[in-house]
Amino acid sequence: MLNLVSADWESITTRSVQQHRIIAAIDLGTNSLHMVVVKIDPTLPSFSIIAKEKETVRLGNRDLATGELKPEVIEKAINALRRFQEVAKTAHAETIVAVATSAVREAPNGRDFLYRVEAELGLSVDLISGQEEARRIYLGVLSGMEFNNQPHIMIDIGGGSTELILGDSQEARSLTSTKVGAVRLTSELISTDPISDAEFQYLQAYTRGTLERSAEDVLSNIKFGESPRLVGTSGTIETLATIHAREQLGYIPSTLNGYEFSLKDLRYWVNRLRKMKNIEISTIPGMPEKRSEVILAGAVILQEAMTLLGVESVTVCERALREGVIVDWMLCHGLIEDRLRYQGSVRQRSVLKQADKYHINLEHSDRVAIFALSLFDQTQGVLHNWGDNERQMLWAAAILHNCGHYISHSSHHKHSYYLVRNGELLGYTETEIEIIANLARYHRKSQPKKKHENYRNLLSKQHRQIVSQLSALLRLAVALDRRQIGAIARIQCEYIPHSQELQIFIFPSQPDDDCALELWSLDYKKSVFEDEFKVKLVANLKQAPMVKI
After folding, report:
1. Which long-range contacts (CB under 8 A, 24 or more apart) does 223-229 make?
2. Phi/psi at 19 (5° precision)
3. For 135-139, what is the mean pLDDT?
4. Sign for the pseudo-dihedral over CA of 469, 130, 223, 220
5. How far apart are CA 367 and CA 285, in angstroms?
6. What is the mean pLDDT of residues 323-347?
7. I want to staple 281 with a disulfide (CB 3.0 to 4.6 A). Which of 48, 261, 292, 311 is the partner?
8. How far apart are CA 394 and CA 79, in angstroms?
9. Using an 8 Å Cβ cutoff, are 121 and 82 in contact?
């Protein structure tokens, strides 16, 4: 278990030694906007939830003709986020980490909505892929439930997508996201009240057919002799557990965490719900406001998933995506001593997996990455002030810059952009993936220009500046391994302020190698670097001194 609820963790990094830190996490879901405010005790480390907020906004209720987020829904979302900010401020939260999922991902004006949120509220919202959403749900569940080193299947039924995950205490073996959600299926497949037999049968068949691939992926990663239990998270499953408990126990438990109900009982409720009108469903004891409209579709998703997976019961976990966002933030900020190697290296593993998939010459890419990071480190605080996160993105771009060769040698930098952008790199937000893809795109040929669509896709001026400056470093790094034989052992940079000159001293691997091709390539590519940083670049070969015998 990722132990954030007990004192088993021994230490933390020295920079985080302090009493408590308070942060907030917001999940802009298809059905609702949720926020948790947590108090982190870095000495354990653990976190406790001190405030929760929810607003049913229905971002997934998009324009049927265009697929865009509706203006009135956008207004409602912005007002809800403004209220969330006030609550977080009152709770003395030092930062708010916000993520958006399928509704914003799929809407043509989704990015415009995020621009507006940042412009009006000063709130930066990270757009995450379905697979990254699944990874953070896994982290959230892992933080709130004891796995005992046994595999667990997790299901999170949202408004627009359903995540099926297989993981144990060490790693997530399968991370899937499918476009079936309670709001999506209700709006697209249900038009009768109560639902007609024909619509119900189609709803079941469509749901099962769509979930089949995800279920197969999960089942294929279960080892012989293992029998994982199913853990369910989020609104639909918590609502079903609530109404089940009310009927079976006569009351609602103070916490639903660990509450279990069977597939048999679920089928009973699906058959009851399908015969009821919305107005009748809304009067069921324990039914939250506005959940009644979408609960049948959500229950069918759970029923079909359980049938496909061959499980007979589901156990509720009250932690999910937003708690996973907290855990991910803690991992990124050194508040957890990372015993789970998988989590700490998730970015690296994901990048190297893509490199293998596209048959990248890893020896060459490694050298390019080393040169790129060396340039980054030696010019940090002199020519730029980017930090560790930008450094990680530069590394990823350096490893993947040539992946476009997998498609074609011609214009391979453009193909690299496409492959990176659509590769679903884990551990990164959609914005970070967009930056990495742009860095790979601009490792050669034209420098970044506003007329390029991929460059315009970047959310802010700061993001465009990251690409402009770091791609200039990447160009030099590529030039330094021009022959792809490791001709240059290392480089040393020296900035001369009065002449605004950056000298790069090049140390060849072989004493008799003049590195002529590398020096020529560096001279050929330096203009973009010089324009970007307003310096003159001078390269000098440093030959090893002759040894006297």
Report:
1. 223/151, 226/150, 226/151, 228/150, 228/151, 228/152, 228/153, 228/166, 229/150, 229/152, 229/153, 229/311, 229/313, 229/315
2. -65, -70
3. 94
4. negative
5. 63
6. 71
7. 292
8. 36
9. yes
CA–CA distance, 145 with 123 (Å, rounded to integer): 31
Whether 2 has a pLDDT exceeding 70, the answer reads no
Q: DSSP readout, 431-468?
A: HHHHHHHHHHHTSSSSPP-TTSHHHHTSSSHHHHHHHH
Tell me the backbone φ, ψ of residue 155, rounded to 5 degrees. Answer: -130, 130
Q: What token pair was written down for 57?
A: 């906004």
Closest by CA position to 471, among listed 486, 449, 491: 449
Q: What is the CA radius of gyration of the chain?
A: 26
429 contacts 392 by C-beta, under 8 angstroms: no
CA distance 386 to 392: 11
Task: Kindly report the average pLDDT of the chain as a whole number.
Answer: 90
Secondary structure of 367-423 in the HEC alphabet?
A: HHHHHHHHHHHHHECCCECCCHHHHHHHHHHHHHCCHHHHCCCCCHHHHHHHHHHCC
pTM of the model: 0.79
A 10 A CB-CB count for 221 gives 16
Point out which residues pair with 23 in neighbouring strands: 38, 95
Report helix, strand or coil for 503.
strand
Domains and CATH numbers, the chain: 14-127+323-334 (3.30.420.40), 146-318 (3.30.420.150), 346-541 (1.10.3210.10)
Minimum mean pLDDT among 114-128, 130-144, 213-227, 418-432: which range? 418-432
Q: Please, is 29 exposed, middle or buried when counting C-beta atoms within 10 Å of its C-beta (0-12, 13-18, 19+)? A: buried
Classify residue 81 by its DSSP letter: H
In the predicted structure, residue 274 carries a pLDDT above the cut 60: yes
339: its two tokens: 């015993």
* Residue carrying the six token digits 């509706």: 70
Taking residues 301-324, report their average pLDDT.
96
Mean pLDDT of 425-444: 89
